[in-house]
Structures are given as C-alpha cells and as structure tokens.
C-alpha cells in the first residue's frame, strides 16, 4: 500500500502541476474530463454492451408504450412494471463495471481530496499542530518522560518561515500535545517533532496554490493508508498515533456558490460522461 | 437636422449643465468626513502646538480649525443625532443614553428597541414565532445623507452612532454605537474563573462572572446567548466549550465546537466563530475572542461579548445586508457591537490597565484596518467614517493625565500618554486621507464633543431628596438597589433618570404623578434656579453651570419624550451612575473613584469638539447641528433640515 500511495502521489503531483497556479476549478475540469473518459472506457470494457443496449431498448419501448396507450390504465401499469424489471436488469448489468470503477475511483478521490479539500496556510495565519500518542506511550523508550514530570519529552521544531508560537499544551487525559504556530512566509516546510530520541516529520504548506496537503499523518495501517495517502505513514512501532495540522477545509466556487470540491467533481464527471459516451461508442 | 459641429456643441453644453451644482446636487463632489468621537478641542490644540499631530496641523493650515459647539446634553447619542438630523434633541428625540417609560418608570436604552415577536404558535414545549422580531431605531428626523442619495449622490456611512438598525438610505452603511451584542445589550462580557472569593456575591455591571472547576486539567463552560424563542419556557441558548490547562506550563487549549485555539497566559485568540443552536434546523452565528488571563494559582478566562457574526448577522447591521460580510471577508472578522472597548471589564476590575489598553487597541485597530479598504472603494459623493476609540479610551485613561484626580494612582503614570497616542493614530488616518484632498476632495475632521477630567460625582436624585422634591421610603436605607425602589412616589415631585435628565412627576403622565400639569413649568423653573445655586462642598464652586428647560429646545417635534430639565454640570463634575438609575446615596457630591475617569456629560460650553476642514466651508458651522447643512451645501443642497 505504501508503494502504491507513493506512486499515486508522484503521478497526481505531476498531473496536476500544470494547474497549480490556476483557479482550482480549471484543474478540476481537466481532471473530471480525464476521469470521465477513463471511466467510460472502463465501463465499456467491463460491461456487456450488447445486453445493456438491449435492456435500454426495452426500457425505451416501455416508455413508448406508456405514451401510446395513455388511455389504457392496465397497459400503462404493465409497462411500468416492465420498466422496473428492466431497470433492475440494467442495474445488475452495471454492477460489474461499477465494481471495476470503484477501486480506481477510491484512489483518485483520495488523492484529489488532498489537492482540493484543504486551503493552504497564509503568511500571518496561526494554526495548531496536534500530536496524539498511543496508549502505553509511557513504556516507549522513544517517549521517555522528562525527569519528575508525567509529560512526554517532546519538542516541535520549525524552519525559518514558520514560528512555534507557544509551548505545547499537554493533555494527559487525551494523550495529546498541542502547539500554536504561525506561518510567516510562503513556502513548503517540514516541521520536526522530537519525542525522546525519535524524530518525526510533518509537512506544512504556506501556499495559495493547488497542491497536495496532508492535514494528518497517521500511524501505518491499511485503512489509514487507504484514506490518508497524502503523506508517508508513521512507523507502526512509533508511540505517536497521529500528527495533525490544522489546515482549513476549502471549497470551490460553483456559479458563485461555494461547494465542496467533490460536488463539482461528480457534477462535471457525469456531464462529461454523458457528453462523450456517443463519441467513444459507450452505452451507459 | 443639426450638423455634426452643432451636435458636438450641444453635447458639450449638456455635459457642462449636468455637472453644475444646483437643486439637483453636484454628484461629482467628494466629501470625506472623519468622525473622531470625543476628540477634545483644547487637547488637540495643545498637541498640534507640540507638533504631535502634523497631518491635522497641515490640514488646519490650509483650511480651518475651530471648536465645534456640542449638543445639550453633550452625550454621544444626542450629539451624533444632532449631527445626523441637523436638529436638537427636541427634534430627533434622543435626550440621553437612557430614557424612561413614564407608565412603568422603567429606564430603557434610548436609541433602539428590540421587540420579540408576540404572535407564536405553541406546539407542546415548542413554539414557532409567526412574525420576525422587530428591531426599531428610535431616532427621528431625516438623516443628512438621504437628500444626497435622492439626488443620485453616493453615500457611504460607516459606524454612524445612533444609526442602528441602519437607516437603509445610504448606498453602503455599517451600524455603529447602539448596535447590541447577541444578548441585546451594549456588551456583556463573560469571565470564567476558579477564584471562589474575589467575585463571590458581586454583581459586575456589564459582565457575568462564572465559577468553573477543573478535573484532571480539564474544565467545561458555556457561552450564553439570548433566550430561545422556539421553546415555550425560553431557556438561554448556549454553546459549550472546554479548556485544557497544561499541568506545568502557563498555556491552555480552548475548544469551541470545531474550533480550537492554543493560548499562552496573557494572549488573546483571534475571533472564534461560535454556533448557538436553537432547534435542529435553526441556529445563531456569533463570534467571540478569548483572553487567557491566568492559569495558576487561579484560572481566569475572559470572553468578549458574543458579537453578531458579520457574515451571517442575526440582526441587520449593514446596507446592503451583504456589506458587513464583504468587510469581514476582505479585512477580517470584527467587533459588530457598537462600543467595543470593554470599559465594563475595566471598571469591574476584570481588566487591569494593561488589559484594557490592549483590548482597546485591538478594537480600535479593526476600525483602522478597515479604513483603507473603504477609502480605496470611495470614488465620489460622501464618505463618513467613524472612530470611537478616542471616546472610550479617554473615559478610562483620562486620569492618567490628571494626577489631581481622586482615582489617580502612581501606577497610572505609564498610561499618561494613552489618550494622546489615540490622537496620534487619528492623525495618521488624516495623513492617509490627505492624498484625496490633493486630488480635490473636501476633508472634514470633526468630533461630537470634547473631554475633561471627571473628578466629582453629583447624585441628582439625592440632591432632589435633600431639597424636598423627592421622598425616600426609607431615608436611612444603606444599600439602595436602585431603579427607584426606595422612592415614595406619592410624595415625590421630581426625579432624575440618565446622566443629565430631570423629570417632573406629572399627574396623568407619570405612573404615580403628583404634580398638576399646570404647575410643571413653574416647578421646573424653580428647580433649575436652585440647581444653579448648588455648591460642591469640597471645592466651594458651583456644581451646575447650565440648566435647559425643555421649552428652550429649538426643535419641538418630540419634546414629550425628553426630560423637563437638562442639567449641565460644571466642568469636572458629572451626574453619578447611581443617580442615573434611580439610586439614593448618603451624600449629594462625592469623589469619583472609578476607573471611568474622563467625561463630557457636563455643561456643553466646557467640552467643545473640533472641526478641521481642508478648506473653509461655504456655509459656516459653529455647532454640531449646523454641520450637516454645511456639508450638504458643499453638494449644492439647501434647505436642510426641513422643519
């Protein structure tokens, strides 16, 4: 999974690079177009197009029957029942290609979420970095308690361009440390968390561009790696459960209305798919 | 058919005619008015002579600088209403911060009224309001920008006092002084503390103190909003918050909804959006700032009054409605309450001098930060921009300049320049605006009144009692709770409400009136003459130097709202807070030992404001209420106000 995520990160970073300085909707239009073309081909190759065409013809015939015999109630009811039956058949025929599409779509959406779902930090903006420790962190050599205190021996270091504005608040009940930081200059930064003898990195982006942003770096695990692929997972034997950075969620302007990027993505993808299905010879 | 040359000639003539001032008004004139609340003429003159106000000095040198006569009484809502309407209090109906309802004898805020919808559909424990709540501006009279808008001249009116809810007649408006917090008050702060003794049993005016307890470094609290209109028993709506205090270090994390802030002791958060849930589909959006005052030995967390979120205000605060949100998006969230400097937290000793200074600078900073944004978008017409910081800082910090003040402490010395620093900030605003003057705009810098030290407090109701005009139920009562609870109305002929108002207890008008209406004027005259003879026993000087009978107001449209006498105290003396709300005190005149040490609610002749203009006005204005007509004259508009 780690290798897959590495490959996907590299691929999406390169693919979206030409759009990084443009309004997010531009890149999203291009991505939606590419995804809809790709999905049309996946649908075409993994579905039984002949049967799908036949089912659609039967549905059309039923609809035609309803229009033709609109004074004949029993005929209309019979045609509607037929439509239901053919629709079920249509869904059944679509199931296999849907299953084929879901897998790549999950990876695509997971990658896009971290490019379009979060707004970068701005110079002068404060943000919080939270480190959550695993249960039993006290027994970890890496997280040795400082002398005479029950708090972990943790420090957060920031490069020039980002300032650590407060000492950490240690919340024993939550096993959490929280710092306030201030972004000072545009740039990509790597924060360093030192916990005992161990060191962990966390990316921080002070940027207005469309870039991959990781709001949280989690401990390794299949689900974590599937859902949070934007950054390398923390080592499994680490006492750190997560390092979170408070990026604000972002939205896309859709005809002047702010909307989550995924709404725009699905609307555009569906529109492109319907527009291109004839040209690509795909029956949907 | 005209030739091409004839046509061009006619077009040029038409263009000249269109640009000529006249009845239609000159819609290419630019006038920028900077309203510096409470900027004192004497102090300004002195600082100009010292070279500390170079931009104002430059403006005065090229134009004019004069004292500007203020209103009677010289209270901000009265004074600004004089300016807005060109009329005195008799015309616009604002006589004081506080008026009284003669039918109930209950005091109320004079400039606006919020009334919840009375028509409600009850469904068990729920109720559905069938009409929106009503927010009403109680100021009468036409605002001076209205005739300009009627002539197509664009006006932008920023934070004009006594203009909440906004008039709706300017192109762009943001309401100012008089805009309430979400509780409908002029600002009620909250203070959460573990200190069980300092605040026990104390009522802090303008704020609420809550005791919180910590368990393993974690405390929970509630931010309180107004009563829930959707529930029949109308409990206060609230938003929970959690504070995590570090076991060793002076730092804490505050969590409100999805928002988290980490603060060191002595730090302020930025504006935190807070959602107050009403019912599952309805909510109220507010904003608050948190100030972590201490974590050990006792915890102390100050929370600002819950301000309306300008992006989704629960009450109208701007014209158009989206303008407040536009300002917030472009310049950041800001205090929407009319008087943001928290004088109450300072007076109640929740704030130290440093705390107040910091908070006042933050509040003033927001207004300063928005100014370039508004100025950049101003092309022509009228721009009015209000700065209230000078008034409230002067109220709280004046004694630092006056070592003879009864409340002066040696620790005040570092703040001796606090007021002057505000004046210097105002001067920089003038400096930012001067390029517009060079480009042809008329710049008017004005204030509503001046300022002076408030050393002696005059308990007017106590004076009335001693003179036999007011009778106490228990003359020996030590802890009068105020609101006239110790007044025997059946034996009372006169009483005072507000800082300068004195009312005759008229039969048929007041709830328990005793004075025949035919005797009202004679009694008012008698009391007025006696007041002018009142002497402060400590100074041996007159305590009152001016008294105005309401019949002496020029404008008479709304005289019935106001007091029968308006009292102008001698310079340095002011009506006491206790008397303003109907409390009887043992002595008539006492030292003012409050943090609130500067004031202006005195004889108006002793506290004039300022008027500085980039060129002499076509129509001179010696008094505040003449200024609107003078501004309109610059646009070629005459005949204001229409009486």
Can you write the helix and strand succession of chain A as a string? HHHHEEEEEEEEEHEEEEH
Low-confidence stretches of chain B: 1-24
CATH class of the largest domain in chain B: Alpha Beta
- State the distance separating the first and last CA atoms of chain A: 32 Å
What strand line-up does the widest sheet of chain B have?
Answer: 2-34-24-1-23-9-10-22
Chain-averaged pLDDT of chain A: 92
Describe what this molecule looks like in 3D.
The complex is a heterodimer of chains A (284) and B (643). Chain A has helices at 2-16, 24-46, 49-68, 73-116, 222-227, 261-276, and strands spanning 118-119, 126-133, 154-157, 162-164, 169-171, 176-183, 187-195, 198-206, 216-218, 240-245, 248-249, 252-254, 257-259. Chain A has 284 residues and is α+β, with helices and mostly antiparallel strands. Chain A has two domains: 2-117 and 260-276, no CATH class; 120-249, Immunoglobulin-like (Sandwich), CATH 2.60.40. In chain A, strands 2, 4, 5, 6, 9 and 10 form a six-stranded antiparallel beta sheet that branches. A three-stranded antiparallel beta sheet of chain A has the order 3-7-8, with no helix packed on it. A two-stranded antiparallel sheet of chain A has the order 1-11. Chain A is elongated, with a radius of gyration of 26 Å. The two termini of chain A are 32 Å apart. With 643 residues, chain B is an alpha+beta fold. Chain B has three domains: 25-94 and 139-177 and 354-451 and 606-643, 3-Layer(aba) Sandwich (Alkaline Phosphatase, subunit A); 180-337, no CATH class; 456-591, Gyrase A, domain 2 (2-Layer Sandwich). In chain B, the strands form ten sheets. An eight-stranded mixed beta sheet of chain B has the order 2-34-24-1-23-9-10-22, sandwiched between helices. A four-stranded mixed beta sheet of chain B has the order 12-11-20-19, with no helix packed on it. A four-stranded antiparallel beta sheet of chain B has the order 13-14-15-16, with no helix packed on it. Chain A binds chain B through residues 126, 128, 130, 149-151, 165-174, 178-180, 246, and chain B through 216-218, 244-249, 251-253, 260-264, 267, 270.
């Amino acid at each position: 999974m780690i290798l897959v995520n590495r490959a996907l990160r590299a691929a999406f970073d390169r693919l979206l690079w030409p759009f990084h300085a443009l309004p997010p909707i531009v890149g999203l239009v291009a991505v939606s177009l590419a995804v809809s073309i790709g999905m049309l081909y996946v649908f075409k190759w993994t579905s039984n197009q002949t049967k799908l065409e036949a089912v659609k013809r039967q549905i059309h015939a039923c609809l035609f029957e309803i229009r033709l015999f609109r004074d004949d109630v029993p005929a209309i009811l019979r045609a509607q029942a037929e439509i239901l039956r053919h629709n079920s058949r249509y869904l059944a025929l679509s199931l296999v290609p849907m299953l084929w599409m879901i897998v790549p779509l999950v990876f695509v959406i997971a990658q896009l979420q971290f490019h379009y779902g979060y707004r970068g930090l701005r110079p002068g903006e404060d943000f919080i970095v939270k480190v959550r420790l695993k249960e039993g962190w006290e027994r970890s050599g890496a997280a040795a308690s400082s002398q005479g205190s029950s708090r972990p021996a943790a420090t957060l270091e920031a490069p020039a361009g980002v300032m650590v504005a407060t000492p950490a608040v240690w919340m024993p009940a939550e096993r959490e440390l929280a710092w306030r930081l201030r972004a000072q200059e545009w740039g990509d930064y790597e924060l360093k968390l030192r916990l005992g003898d161990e060191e962990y990195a966390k990316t921080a982006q002070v940027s207005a561009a469309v870039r991959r942003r990781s709001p949280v770096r989690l401990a390794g695990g299949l689900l974590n790696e599937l859902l949070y692929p934007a950054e390398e997972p923390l080592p499994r034997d680490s006492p750190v459960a997560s390092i979170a950075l408070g990026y604000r969620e972002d939205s896309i302007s859709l005809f002047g209305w702010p909307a989550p990027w995924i709404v725009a993505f699905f609307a555009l993808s569906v529109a492109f798919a319907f527009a291109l299905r004839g040209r690509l010879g795909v029956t949907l | 058919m005209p030739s091409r040359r004839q046509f061009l000639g006619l077009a040029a003539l038409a263009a000249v005619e269109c640009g000529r001032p006249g009845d239609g008004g000159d819609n290419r004139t630019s006038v920028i008015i900077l309203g510096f609340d409470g900027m004192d003429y004497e102090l300004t003159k002195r600082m100009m002579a010292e070279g500390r106000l170079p931009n104002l000095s430059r403006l005065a040198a090229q134009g004019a600088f004069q004292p500007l006569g203020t209103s009677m009484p010289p209270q901000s809502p009265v004074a600004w209403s004089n300016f807005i309407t060109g009329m005195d209090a008799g015309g616009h109906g604002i006589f004081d911060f506080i008026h009284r309802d003669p039918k109930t004898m209950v005091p109320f805020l004079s400039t606006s009224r919020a009334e919840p919808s009375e028509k409600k559909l009850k469904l068990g424990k729920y109720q559905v309001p069938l009409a929106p709540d009503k927010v009403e501006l109680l100021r009468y009279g036409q605002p001076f920008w209205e005739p300009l808008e009627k002539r197509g001249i664009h006006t932008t009116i920023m934070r004009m006092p006594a203009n909440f809810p906004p008039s709706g007649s300017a192109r762009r408006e943001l309401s100012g002084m008089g805009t309430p917090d979400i509780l409908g008050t002029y600002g009620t702060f909250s203070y959460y503390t573990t200190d069980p003794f300092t605040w026990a049993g104390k009522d802090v005016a303008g704020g609420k103190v809550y005791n919180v307890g910590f368990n393993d470094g974690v405390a929970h609290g509630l931010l309180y909003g107004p009563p829930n209109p959707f529930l029949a028993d109308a409990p206060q709506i609230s938003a929970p918050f959690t504070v995590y205090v570090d076991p060793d270090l002076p730092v804490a994390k505050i969590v409100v909804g999805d928002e988290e802030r980490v603060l060191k002791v002595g730090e302020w958060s930025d504006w935190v959006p807070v959602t107050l849930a009403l019912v599952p589909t309805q909510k109220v959006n507010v904003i608050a700032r948190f100030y972590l005052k201490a974590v050990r030995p006792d915890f102390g967390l100050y929370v600002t009054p819950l301000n309306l979120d300008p992006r989704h205000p629960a009450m109208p605060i701007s014209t158009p409605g989206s303008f407040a949100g536009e300002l917030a998006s472009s310049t950041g969230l800001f205090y929407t309450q009319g008087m943001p400097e928290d004088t109450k937290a300072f007076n109640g000793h929740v704030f130290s001098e440093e705390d107040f200074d910091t908070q006042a600078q933050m509040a003033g900073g927001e207004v300063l930060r928005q100014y370039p944004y508004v100025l950049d978008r101003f092309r022509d017409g009228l721009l009015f921009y209000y700065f209230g910081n000078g008034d409230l800082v002067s109220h709280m910090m004046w004694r630092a300049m006056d070592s003879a003040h009864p409340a002066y402490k040696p620790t005040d010395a570092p703040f001796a320049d606090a007021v002057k620093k505000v004046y210097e900030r105002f001067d920089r605003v003038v400096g930012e605006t001067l390029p517009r003057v060079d480009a042809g705009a008329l710049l008017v810098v004005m204030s509503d009144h001046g300022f002076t030290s408030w050393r002696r407090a005059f308990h007017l109701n106590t004076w009335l009692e001693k003179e036999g005009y007011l009778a106490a139920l228990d003359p020996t009562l030590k802890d009068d709770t105020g609101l006239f609870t110790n007044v025997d109305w059946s034996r009372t002929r006169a009483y005072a409400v507000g800082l300068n108002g004195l009312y005759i207890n008229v039969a048929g008008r007041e709830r328990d009136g005793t004075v025949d209406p035919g005797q009202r004027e004679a009694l008012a005259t008698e009391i007025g003459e006696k007041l002018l003879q009142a002497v402060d026993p400590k100074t041996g000087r007159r305590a009152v130097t001016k008294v105005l009978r309401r019949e002496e107001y020029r404008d008479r449209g709304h005289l019935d709202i106001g007091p029968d006498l308006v009292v102008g105290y001698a310079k340095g003396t002011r009506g006491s807070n206790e008397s303003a709300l109907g409390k009887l005190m043992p002595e008539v005149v006492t030292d003012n030992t409050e943090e609130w040490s500067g004031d202006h609610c005195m004889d108006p002749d002793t506290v004039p404001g300022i008027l500085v203009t980039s060129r002499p006005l076509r129509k001179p204005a010696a008094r505040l209420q003449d200024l609107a007509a003078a501004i309109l004259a610059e646009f070629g508009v005459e005949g204001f106000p229409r009486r």
